[in-house]
């Protein structure tokens, strides 16, 4: 997820490592953990693979120059691939990954956004059915357990409603764009 986030932010604007970390913390800290121990090795890997390149250097606070990175065509291709993939992962990670992807929806085509929204909505319905199927197998015994389950159900229902609204909006945009082409 860190690679997806970093490449997405580098599409937005060229950045040096410190600024990249700041923006990751600002926009992605609810979904991923960001630390310097991960940022600089990631930038090095991406540069070695030709997915980002140093486009400038500027004086840093400590005297050593800061490398400013920009995304390459190869990096944009990797980013798009990561945006459209659906890796097998835990419920929590898949939710975090989707929210990161949503932040970058503006870089995708309407049809791609619709597919991602439809996929996440299906995953949420599957999760809802799974939770419902476990109710009889694992009966709750106290008010805290009931409250925790109710909160879980409320959050999931809220996400389903939000996804449904976003999907309807995207479908309207796509219909208008298709109508304009005719």
Question: What is the gist of this entry?
Answer:
With 182 residues, the protein is mainly α. Strands 1-2 form a two-stranded antiparallel sheet.
Describe the structure.
The chain has 182 residues and is mainly α. Helix content is 69%, strand content 7%. The chain is built from 7 helices and 2 strands. The chain has helices spanning 2-12, 17-28, 36-48, 73-84, 91-103, 110-134, 143-181, and strands at residues 52-58, 66-71. The chain has a two-stranded antiparallel ribbon. Helix 1 (2-12) packs across helix 4 and helix 2 (17-28) crosses helix 3 (36-48). The longest helix has 39 residues, at 143-181. The mean pLDDT is 91.
Main features:
single chain, 182 residues, mainly alpha, two-stranded antiparallel sheet, 7 helices, globular
- The first-to-last residue Cα distance is 39 Å
Summed over residues and divided by their number, the pLDDT gives a mean of: 91
* Structural class by helix and strand composition: mainly alpha
Helix content: 55-70%
Low-confidence stretches at least 5 residues in length (pLDDT < 50)?
A: none
The largest β sheet comes out as: 2 strands, antiparallel
Order of helices and strands: HHHEEHHHH
Share of β-strand residues? 5-15%
Note the total helix count.
Answer: 7
Name the overall outline: globular
